[in-house]
Every structure is written in C-alpha cells, then in structure tokens.
Records
---
Amino acid sequence: MKICMIGAGYVGLVSAACFSEFGWTVTCVDKDENRSAELKAGRSPIYEPGLDALMERNMTAGRLTFTGELGPAVAGADVVFLAVGTPMRRGDGYADLSYVFSAVEEAAPHFDGFTVVTTKSTVPVGTSREIERRLKIKRPDADVAICSNPEFLREGSAIQDFTHPDRVLVGCDQARAREVMERLYKPLALRGSTVMFVDRESAELAKYAANAFLALKISFINEIADLCESIGADVQEVASAIGKDRRIGDKFLHPGPGYGGSCFPKDVSALIRTAREAKSPVSIIEQVERVNHERKLAMAVRIEAAAGGSVRDKTIAVLGVTFKPNTDDMRDAPSLVIVPMLQERGATVRACDPQGRQQAEPLLPGVIWCEGAQEAARDADVLVILTEWNEFRALDLEAVKATMAGNAVVDLRNVLDPEAALELGLSYQGMGRGKLASKNADNPRSRLKN
Ligand code: NAD
C-alpha cells in the first residue's frame, strides 16, 4: 500500500513513521525546506521519545522517505493524508483551514487512479464536504473519496498511542474508501485495536468533543483544587477517591497551571465558535475556556504571593517551560503567560527545560537560560515547578535550598514531596493541598526570608 503524508509535524511525522513500521510504503512531504532537508538526512526536527530509532529503521528498509515535492508523492498513492496545522485563526478563534485547503489544491493536479484523501488534521464539521466541493471544481475528473480520520495521539507518548490506540476513528461515506481504510489499519485491527467507521460529520465532531471533555476535566479538578485550599482538604486524596470510580476515571485529574499545548486551546475555541454558529452553544465549554484563561493569570499571582506580595527585584527560578513533559512543543504553554507576567512585574526569571529551550528562547525574551534545576535555583527567591519533567521529581531539595536566596517553592504540578520540603525548612506550596497551609505556618524550621 502506498501512502502520502502531507505535513511532517508532530502528527504527520509520527503517523508516517508508524505506518511504515506496519510495512506500508510512506512518503512524507513537508513544504518547509529546512524541515524536509533535516528529515532527508534522517534527523527528526521534533523531540518525541522513540521517533529517531523508528525513522532510522524504516528509512534504512526503504519504506519511509521524505521530500519537499508534493507531485511525485501524491501520484499513485492509495491514501493521501492531510496532516497540516489547523491553528486558531487570528481575530475570531475559528480553526484556520487555509493550510488544509492549500494542501488539497496543491495535491489535486497529481491524483492518479482511485485515491482516498483523508484528514488527519483536526478539522471542524463540514470540512470533508468542503474539500469534496473544492476538488470537484479543481479536478472534476479525479477518482477520489474524502474521509476523516482524526488523530488522538498525545505528544510525549505519540508512538505508543498510535500503535496501541484506544480506538481508530474513520469517518467515511463510501464503500470503496472504507475497504482501503480497513486494509490500511488491518495491522492494528489484527492486534485487537478497535477500528470504528462512522459518518464523516460524526468523526469530525468526535475529535473536538473528546478534547473539550478532557479540557473540562482539567478545569474541573483545578477548581476543586482551589476549593481544597480554602477548606483544608487535599486534592490528591479527592482526585484519587473520585478517580477510582470507573464512571469518572483517574486520568486528567491532576491540578496544574491550566491546560495549554497545540490542541486543547485551539480546539476548545473552534468548538465554541462552531456551536455558536449552529445556534447550539456549548455553554459549559465556554466556561472552561474562561476558567482556563483566568487560571494562568492566577498562577502568576500565586507566585507573587509566595515572593512576599511582590516579585519586583526578586529572582524566580522556573523549572520547565514546555506545555507538558517529554515534548519540546511550546504552543500555548502556560509559561508563555506566566513568565512574561512575572517579568512585567519586575522579576528576573531564570529557567531551564530538558528539551524545550530551543523553541522557548525566542518566545520568552529576557529569560536567563540555565543548564538544569540546580543552576536555575541559584540566588532565587522563589522556585517554581511549571512542567512535570521526571528529572524534577527527583530534585535534590537540600542542594537547591542551599543555593537559593529565599526558601519558597511553588509546585504547580504537585511533583515534590511536601513533607520532605517542609522538613528542610522550605516554604512549600503545592496545588490544592489545603492541609499544608497550617503545616507551613507551624513549621519551626521554616525561615521565611520573603
Ligand atoms: P505541526 O505544525 O507540527 O505540523 C504541520 C506541518 O505541516 C508543518 O511542518 C508544515 O510545514 C507542514 N505543512 C503545512 N502546509 C503544508 C503543505 N501544503 N504541504 C506540505 N507540508 C505542509 O502540526 P501538528 O501538531 O502535527 O498538528 C497537525 C494537525 O493534527 C492539527 O490539525 C492538530 O490539531 C492535529 N493534532 C495534533 C496533535 C498533537 O499532539 N500535536 C494531536 C492530535 C491531532
């Protein structure tokens, strides 16, 4: 089976590498010349655990190739995937479909024989129909079928998610296209994965509904965390208790600085706009968007409070800037709101991130970049854990404390052991840990410098 993947980003590149691992012949096209040159040389332009080895194996076997030229990759392909970006459109919050439509129009002259054109990008309801309409004008003679195959992988565990999916979802209106898609995903079906066929509108909406629901779960536990702080409960215990209920589930019940990343903010925004346009507003999701925005601002205020009420002329050490661990992706990361707010209020920010520095540097001007946590903590008044990279879980708190000027730790991901921090005399603040407030106050070893 011959596959053309248009777009070699987090989704396109991982999907291309995984399809080639199934034994299919995959050509991955990216119009970004630097990106396609890197890929041709066998180097991944993104950080994703396991991706380098997967690429190398399949490139060596001749099943995976990269190019910047669309024509030859599209010609003769059984399936042409659209895996280009669908960012939030400036000004109105809708999904920007310009990359999707340009990719379709660039590919159109090259369709050759029966071709299934499939969106892997997250696209609003009606996009498959619109692609069909445009292709009928551009290539009335082309033998094409349009499918929707939204992708549910998560950055950081993308290969595992792609190869062991909770389900594969295909929106398809034609028997011939369904046969092709069944053949494509047979390697996963044979291993027991569910491959679901639904109509195209349902597939398109399901992706937005899934992301909006997960965003809702995050905002819900963030508000419960705040309530825990007000009434003296512990959100870890509450989340663990409710997560055991199979109707609720224990995933996405970790309080934090608000969701970010390449998908949730833009997909929540696009769903809200689609629903308003359909005169069927999703008022709960509108509230989620508002709560999440305010959450990020509240985190800066929380850090300010830990610094004694003002960060002016204070040094803040920020550990982790990517929107989550195991990725270098900075899109809509909470750090992009929190760090500039601290700087505007007069703080010097020293930061480190295991993989994100290169992408973060141009986005966070004025930050002093450090090699690791220990260096970032030097002379800091407040230490903030913003992304839960594993290496921060095992932080040597004693060494960190020795190098800091102050003693406040704000753990926005609840990765540290509060007891150990308090024992060392640090003033520790986690998320939703209401019981700690009194322990902090009673702690005889705490030397509150701030
Ligand atoms: P990305 O920005 O990382 O990658 C998109 C790539 O497409 C870029 O490299 C760009 O140069 C290339 N491109 C754009 N137009 C092109 C064209 N005409 N021809 C060839 N290449 C072109 O985006 P991403 O994070 O991979 O997301 C892609 C889509 O998948 C989005 O709709 C996103 O919502 C969805 N999605 C993303 C994730 C994720 O975790 N990143 C998960 C599920 C779904």
---
Amino acid sequence: MTIGLETRLREVLGKKTVEALSEGLGLDTVGDLLGHYPFRYAQRGERTDLGALQIGEDVTVAAQVRAAIPKSFVPKASAHDRGGRGGRPGGKPRDLLEVIVADEAGRSLTLTFFNQPWRAKELVAGRWGLFAGKVAQFRGRLQLNSPQYRLLAEDAVAGPADTAVSAIEEFAGTLIPVYPATAEIPTWNIAKAIHTVLDMVPNPPDPLPRSLRESLNLLDYGTALRQIHRPDSHEALGAAKKRLKWQEALVLQAVLVRRKAEAAGEAATAYARGGALLEAFDARLPFALTEGQRQVGDEIAAELAGEHPMHRLLQGDVGSGKTLVALRAMLQVVAHGGQAALLAPTEVLAAQHHRSIVEMLGDLARGGADLIAELENSSGRGAPPEATRVALLTGSATAAQRRTVLDEVKTNTAGIVIGTHALLYDGVDFAELGFVVVDEQHRFGVEQRDALRAKASRTPHTLVMTATPIPRTVAMTVYGDLETSRLTELPAGRTPIATHVVPYTDQRWMARTWNRVREEVAAGRQAYVVCPRVGDSDQKTANGDEPEAFVETDGDKRPPLAVVDVIEQLRAGALSGLRLGLLHGRLDADEKDRVMRAYAAGEIDVLVATTVIEVGVNVPNATAMVVLDAERFGISQLHQLRGRVGRGAHPGLCLLVSEAAEGSSSRERLDAVASTTDGFALAELDLEQRREGDVLGAAQSGMKSHVKLLSLLKDADIIEAARAAATELIRADPKLKAEPGLAALVDDLAADRGEFLEKG
Ligand code: ADP
Ligand code: MG
C-alpha cells in the first residue's frame, strides 16, 4: 500500500488512537494529522508560568518535581462514594500522594494521585516532566488531580528506568511539541501518532511551485512538516513555519485572485456613463463633489459602463460621502433602465438610507401618486426615466405595503430598492437588477451577496461600502476578491472633530469638561456622555446584544463607570437643570426608540449612553461627546463613537476622560485618537494592538481552520508577497494546470469559500 496525505488514519494507526483523533480533534487522514501543528514547544527548564494558570483550564506544563508526599485520606461518606457503603460515617482510608512540582521561577503546583502509591517511586525530586490535566482549586491552592504525565530523561538524576522517557525523547529533540489535545488523547500520544505517520510519508508532493520555493529559499514540504513536529533547533523551526505560512498565504490568495479573475470574466449589463437622471441630479447638487468622490465616482462609472461586473469595496469614514457616491452610481444604472438594490444591515439603517436618499433626490424621487399610471406604461428597460421611485422593503412592512413594493420591484417602477435581508427572500423578483450596493459589509456574508445576485439574469455590479477602516492585510485577505477604493477626505467646510484627553482626577479639567457641555447646550446644541458599563446589575451582558466595552474585574481598581450611576450624579451635580436621557442595550426596543426619537427631536439635551449609539445614529445637532473611562474602549471604537458628533454645520468636540497615567500605553492610545482623525491610520494602529484571535474572531471562523500559522498582524510581508505571486501565477496559468498540487489545495479551499469568507 502506498501511503499519502489522503490515506485514512484507520489504515495506519490503532483503533483507539484513530477514534480519539477523529472524535476529539476531527483528524481523519494522514494529511489532517500532519496539519495538526503544535501550539507551542516545551523545553526542559523552560519558564512555564505556573502563576498564570486559570482554574478549569486544560493545561500541559513542563515542571520539575520538588517533593512527593504520601498521605492517607478518609473519604466523606456519600451515596456516590464507592468506598463508604450505606452511609456509614467515614470510609476505608485511601492512599493520597501529593506531588509538588515547580517551574524555574519557583512557583509551584500540586498534583494529587489517589491509591497509586507506587507513583512516588518515579516522581522523585529533581525529575522534569510534562504534566497534563485540568486546573482545579483546593483550599486556595491550584492543583491537577490525577494528571497524565511523561517524565523527561534527566542526566543529573539517576531515576528508575522508564519507558515513557524514551517514548517522549525519541520523537523530540530539545524542543518538545505540545499539541492541542483532549481528555481522550494527551499531547504525547498525538506526538507518537504523528511520529508514526511522518516516517510513512517522507516526501509528500510539494504544492508550492518549485521556482517560488527556490527564489525564496523555502524548505520543501516534507522537511517543513518534519521540522514543525520535531524541530532540530529554533532556526529549523523558524524556517519550517515560514515555509508553511507561505503555503497558507499562497493558497488563500490564489483562491481570492482566481475568484476575482473569474468574476471579472463574467458578462454583465453595461450601463453607459451619465444619463439624464444622473445629470439632472448632479445639476441640483448644492455642493461640489470632493476630489475623492470625483475620482472614485469616475472609477465606478467606468466599471458600470463595462461588459464585466464590478466588484468593489468602498471604504470611507463616517461622513466622507459614500452614500452620495453610491447614489450617483445607482442613478447611472437607473438612467439606463436598470434597477439598483441597497442592502443595509438593520431596519433602522435601511429606513435612514431611504429617508436621506429620497431627500437628496428631491423631485427626482417619484411619489406613490404616480404609481398607477406608471405601472400601466411600464415595460422594463424603456425610455430613460426623468425620475424614479425609491422603494423600502423591510421585515416590518405590512402585507399590503409589501405587496405594493414587490409590484414596484417586479415592474421596474422602483429603480432603487432599499432594504434589509428581507430583500434576499423568495418572492422578491427584480425586473432588471443591475447593481447591488451593500452597506456595512461585515454583517453580510458572501452567500447572502450571492443570493441577491441570483435574483438577476446576469451578474449585477456590486459595490460594498464600509465605514470601518480596514487595515491593508485584512482587506487583502478577507476582502481579497474585491477591488478597493478609499475616500480619505471629508467634504469641504466640515470642521474636523477636535479631540482632547482629560485627566479624570483633575478637578479643574473635569469642571471645564462639564462646562463645555453646558455651553453647547446653551448654544442650542446637544451632547453625548458615553460610559463603558450599564451598571443596573453586576452581571455582564453576555448575549452580545450590546457592544459594551471590556470590563475588567481587577479587584484593585474601581469598577468602570456605569450609565445608571453617572446619570444620577450629573443630574444632581454638574449638569443639573439640563434635560438628560438614558440609553443602553438593556432597555426594551420601544424605550430605546422613544429615547432616540426624543433626542433627535431635541427634547433631550444630553444623552447618557453606552456604546449602543455607536452604529447608525445620526443627530446633526449633537456637537459634543464626553467619553468616560475612555481607556476601556478600543481605538477604532472611539473613532466610530466620535463620528456621532460634528455631523452638522457646527464643529464637533470629543473629550476622552481617563485615569490612565501619562506615558502609559493606555494613555498613548488615547493620545493617538486625539492626534488624528485619519480612520485608516487608527485602524492600522488598532490592529497592531489587538490579538490575532480578535482580528479573525468576529470576521470568519471558517478561515481559522485554513490559516493556522499565518498571522494577519505579523505576516503582512508574506501576505503581500503571496498576493503578488498568486496574481502572477493565475495570470500566466488561470487553471493552474502546471501546478496540480497547488490547484488541488486551491479547489479544496474554494469549495468552502462560502464558509471561509462568511462573516459574523
Ligand atoms: P457616509 O455615507 O460616508 O457616512 P454621506 O454620504 O451620508 O456619508 O454624507 C454625509 C453628509 O455629507 C451628507 O449629509 C451628505 O449630503 C454630505 N455630503 C456628501 N458629499 C458632500 C460634498 N462633496 N460636499 C458637502 N457635503 C457633502
Ligand atoms: Mg452612510
């Protein structure tokens, strides 16, 4: 039998191991198993931080035996206790062996073994070992109960001959791989299984093109696999990781580049530039387009006029004028008889878009009155309309409203259709869907985009808009199948928001802060006060309903400020006499809605809120924002938050109140937010400070299973180089015929691309 990466493990390993690997870890083939990389490497004498163990965690630690203390122990009687039958008080005494192990720093951990007194013979002081188990707490001390362990050979100690020693040392050099493990199969048994199969496939076919490997001086696949599982040295391990990261990056980029190339090859309806409707709109615009709007608008207009579908991501800060860019593109399509759909993530945002688009269009948006006549004359793509109907379809529409809208959509009476997911459902039939705009992409998956596209006879042009600046490496991976455009400037005449950091403990500064709020209110404007916590109960919001700031439970620190407390203090003190409103995620939907409407109507002067105001709130009269405990918020979050003020004619002010000491890293983050309004610069900074899991976390779970070693944070150079290499490869050989190994991996990943590109 020839054994390859696709060979089933059951053909080469024992039944028990195969079951444990399959059920616990989802590993079924030789390739799966070899792709199960160690998550770290233990070293004899390493500084395992025993002080950082968490109760309940499954850990494998390297530590040295300090003492083994035989004790005896009388179990309490209980019905469940096999030793104490019939509730007799006390049971048969049992042997208890307590073993104290310690790390280099001298922090110790207790291991307990019941009725295994013989273990004292091998767990002698001075021996190093790997110990695996669940961390428990007993009388205030951390311990592992009946852990599994393997001792390491130790020249200095003449211990009893131990077969376990050779079992572990023969497959590991000085760096001992520690694998993600389960209770059924500890790390050393995984290592043993890998050891077995590694020798069976010494030379797996190499999916990386030879020329690339040679020019970059990358290890061949077999060597890389051997070195990641049994590194000879730190250098060899580094080379193995680099090579395997390259493979991950190249496969991923090849999928994206190919998808992009295929999409570009599809046929789309061409909508010529300009058109009466767009020209009429431009003629009425009360302001000039910004340079960015003109440039991006030009790019989009040219693509809409082409025979192939546009797939473009438009990034731009809140207020940079994306909606206007999208609307002009929609009008170009409508002007030539096509329909445009605008997909929003929530009903509130869909309704807001509908209102503002109807308002921007003025008399170019036809009212319902013309409908009947229009329906009678309508005949799909016909003469260029002078105006168009803007339909809104959300889940909360009544049956009658829904029927009307569906009719408008079906007959092309509505050139622009705005809605939420409701647009994706069956029964929504477009007459001539030519253009899809997706607002705030991160809530929509590729599958949903595809569902909407399926409603068109030919692939519609697609524009994805996002106000969350996306760092380059993320854009290149998560949105790698789209072209990207950025709007980097705000429309002229907009005063950028002034942001200052205010020390919480400085009474004078704080007094000045609240006075500024009073001044704004006195001038007829409104303000926000943002706190990290709700505070009406101690439990954290766990349902993800409300994006509350991270709440530390550090005993030394005071708890983060809570809206329910702050509003009372302000009412009684600094902001007495003003009309204060309270908004947080635990209010019911009606109450939230009532408060927001009152605020928008100017009936509330100051809104004391959590981050629920982060998304989609537009009250142009709000000019000041005070963020309390500002260091509790992320950089991008603060940037999004302050985007809520200064949206109207008056300059905005944002005060970041914090106890963070001057020069601390928290304070530096706040200073960074205060120093620039460039959302892209802040997004890059934010990315540097976040952990990998957070970056991939919310984005796409599926991608995590493909990208095991590659870091979006640290491997930007590999990602960029792999992108260039993939582009070149696919340009020269679109089907990758010359690279069957690579092609197979690309096909595999592409097969679940819906999953790996899926968001949220
Ligand atoms: P975004 O969608 O990027 O948040 P919008 O398109 O909603 O931004 O624009 C925000 C506001 O700025 C809107 O009121 C819009 O009418 C206005 N606006 C857009 N472009 C310009 C411009 N070039 N000059 C002046 N105001 C503009
Ligand atoms: Mg917008």
